Amino acid sequence: MSGHHDSNDRLLELLAAQQLGDLAPEERDELQELIQKHNIDPDQLPDQFLGELLVMLDQQSIDQDQLPSDLARRLETSGRAAIVSAAAPNSYRIPTDATPQQSSPKLWGWITTAAAVIAISASIFAVSNYNKRKQSATQYESQLAALQTKIDNNNDLLEASRLAAEQTQQELETLQLTNDAQATRLAELDRSRLELADQLAQATSSLLDARDTIAMYETPLSPEQLADNRTKLLTVPDAVQIAWQPFDLPDAPAEQQGVRGDVVWSDDLQEGYIRFVGLKPNDPNVEQYQIWVIDERGLEQKVSGGIFNASAEGEIVVPITPGIDVGRVALFAITIEEPGGTWVPDLSRRVVVAPREEDG
Q: Whole-prediction pTM value?
């Protein structure tokens, strides 16, 4: 197959040399042999030459950057033939075996065909190079577009990350504010507990003072001094004197019977004394006596008038010491309670009562 192509190439070279008048005698004989070998009609040589050129172009790789050297050489030879024929057509040497009248039209046709082949070949390679450049540009633009898309995606990702970071920072700040609020609340609670503890300490101190006062009454003043104070109070214009009587209920008599004595009281001075005869001594570790003052508000508003002990038989005088101011007193009573007394008596251990009579 390679020998056939070489023979065709040689035939084309000899035909081109014949048209340029550069055919040596031995080359002319070689040309005639090749024509006969390939059974070529001399009248069809220009067309067959064109066909061979087209076949050669088809067999070459038009994707190459340069025209194949052998094809370039043959096209250059044919081009020179076309140029020479255009500049000096009479300079062609007509083969000895043909007359000018027979050969000239064919030669001119061949030259025209060769020129067309050259133009076609040049156009093919120009278009090929243009297409390659266009394809490269298209690929480059596609790569740029893909790169730009990747950049845009990365920018979107960065923006999303930035927004997420800002949101996280805001949540942390909100959490910090929440923690600060909780810390403030805890501090307020601690302060409240301290205030309550202080109030409790003050209440404890007041209770100790009250116990001291109670203890003071555990050792009554001398009967003479108490009697003198009581006598002086009787001289006050609004002072009243009320006798004791048993604190009996219909189905529950008083715990002690036969207790005598009275109450001297001044509403204006909020001062009074109680006197007993026949009150049984008590054990302060087990029980104590408690005074109750009831004013016009009724039994529901009982006010403690103090706690005392009966340490000896005979007459006992004890001062009345209400914890708060009272109104017009309506009733005085004595009950037995646990040590230290109580805030609300159940009246289960009643001793005596001194109701105040209505003013006439």
A: 0.41
